[in-house]
Amino acid sequence: MSQLSLLIELQTVHDNLHVIQRDLSAFPPDLAALDSELKMLAKKLEETGRALVSSRTQQASLATNLAAAQKQEDLSKAAVKETKQKTQFTLAIRELDDRQRQKASIARPLKDVETRIEALERAEVEMRARQAEAQRQFDELRAVFLSEHENQVEAERRLQARRAEIAVEVDPAVLVKFDRLLQQRQGRAVVSVDKGSCGGCRTRLRTPFLAQLREEKNLYCESCQRILYDPAQLP
Ligand SMILES: [Zn+2]
After folding, report:
1. 233 CA to middle of ligand 1, Å?
2. What are the boundaries of each domain within the chain?
3. What's the average model confidence in pLDDT over 71-76?
4. Ligand 1 centre from 193 Cα, in Å?
5. Which of 2, 89, 111, 141 has the most CB within a 10 Å radius?
6. Does Coiled coil count among this protein's keywords (predicted)?
7. Average pLDDT for residues 151-156, to the nearest whole number?
8. Ligand 1 geometric centre to CA of 189 (Å)
9. What spacing in Å lies between the alpha carbon of 30 and ligand 1's midpoint?
10. Span 3-157: which CATH code?
11. Nearest in space to 73 (alpha carbons), one of 42, 106, 41
């Protein structure tokens, strides 16, 4: 088989796979609802995970600050205990007061962060439980759905096997280009010449280019880069 025939067949395989995969992803309503719920849960879990990381970082830094403030408070308490002279005692009490206020100003936001972390952790546990349950229901319904679409599943398997067979025979550099074109050109990598124009982008092809194409010297459309063939020359 020529490279060109292989590429044309590869395009047909892809077209058929596309149709089958579209059918196989056209879920009935209950399955579609579970599918979107699972996607939504995955997104929320990711957001919750990120919020937890940032809250825990905040918690760690506040806890460090609180420990330092506690140390300062302890020092002040000791100072109050040891002071006998009246004026010094008043000063020491005032200092202790300041340091207790300072500690409180850290303890409050720390408490808030801890409350937030607990709420996030609870939400995470609930979402994971729901995710597991929804996934179980989804798998169950999907198995039923796939068994009802047994023919398509079988055809998909056959097409994928054929795709792999063709892939080993095609020049690797051309295969890379083919796959890139599939992505960039809405699934149409190989197109035929149609009345002297590219069947993909409709650009009029130059006469010398058409001559080269007939000799299989120039495979790519000069405008859209798709792989071109002239149906007239196919066996
Ligand atoms: Zn073109």
Report:
1. 19
2. 3-157, 171-233
3. 96
4. 9
5. 141
6. yes
7. 95
8. 10
9. 42
10. 1.10.287.1490
11. 106
